Amino acid sequence: MRRTTFPRITECSATAGSAESSSIAADLDGTMLISRSSFPYFMLVAVEAGSLLRGLVLLASFPLIAIAYLFLSESLGIQMLIYISFKGVKIRDIELVARAVLPRFYAADVRQESWKLFDNCGGRKVVVTANPVVMVEPFVKDFLGGDKVLGTEIEVDPRTGRATGFVKSPGVLVSDLKRSAVEKEFGGPGNGPDFGIGDRESDHAFMALCKEGYMVHPDSRAKAVPGEQLKSRIIFHDGRFVQAPTPLTALLTYLWLPFGFALSLVRVYFNLPLPERIVRHTYPLLGINLVIRGNPPPPSTSTRGGSLFVCNHRTALDPIVIAIALRRKISCVTYSVSRLSRLISPIPAVNLTRDRAADAARISALLEKGTWWSAPRAPPAASHSSSGSRRCSRS
């Protein structure tokens, strides 16, 4: 018989020593994570792997999804999120977002009490979730140290490599399906791990299999785990969103987009014709806060070569901002950029060929003439040529 009540996670007395060989099955949203909503992560997939239009459709559908989730079926709500976010998207793009974008937002939301028990367990550790495995697996394995993700498997068209928007049998992993998955993972009917933690009634099914089960109750003031305590650290991050796109944040972002786009055009084209030494003073008038730390390298001379700046490439304006900070003209090396883009570029741009030897020689020659800008996604030749420059800065 299933238990219907479980003690709070705060009542768990397991330590690293006592749980050294213990196994655990943990829910994700609301349990390992503070937030109970998976909407922000589906929004990230919709925008980063799909488009802003797809994200807008998902945002407009949120009221219907919420009604379906709360009053009809948890499974139906998740299925709607998956269909809108994944339909027609290349599985490769979803995998890239799961590795390059989602971990930063997941890592900032890991709940301390749940992480303590999960980390203390030295046996088999699995995360049980209704979310698609492809979304959460990189984070669970790399940052939580989980061994496996038991989650929803999405359907992919083998001819196109794109998600169909539907899920594979047995469907969205909730309630009894979670129980069945945990039983299968831990040796068959009636078998389960030593510990089980969840945050909602639909988790009771798999928690009842565990020797000890604990509830993680909603608490917006719960402490998050510092990033350095996780199994890995966020080093490189991609993506357009600064904050997790909750429904409110996403709505405000879309409302701001037309005004932000118009303002960006003013900021860029008002300053383009002005000398770099003057632009530093016009920036504050347009609401731009330019912070410069350190001493810029001197200009190139006949006896001293130029400098190579390697930037994180957050926007296409990186080389322009570098030029303003240096108070002098710079040029950039790039690749996979059309001839039209190079023609309308406000600064000189040289296209690379992806041939290591040829590009290394080209960049070395260019550094003799002045200061250049590059991004880390440039070909490997850039790293070889930078070693020959007199000064190399990273921005």
UniProtKB/TrEMBL annotation:
Annotated region (Disordered), positions in chain: 376-395
Membrane-protein topology: Multi-pass membrane protein
Organism: Stephania yunnanensis
Protein name according to UniProt: Glycerol-3-phosphate acyltransferase RAM2/GPAT1-8 HAD-like domain-containing protein
GO CC list: membrane
GO BP terms, alphabetized: cutin biosynthetic process; phospholipid biosynthetic process
Record keywords: Lipid biosynthesis, Lipid metabolism, Membrane, Phospholipid biosynthesis, Phospholipid metabolism, Transferase, Transmembrane, Transmembrane helix
Compartments where found: Membrane
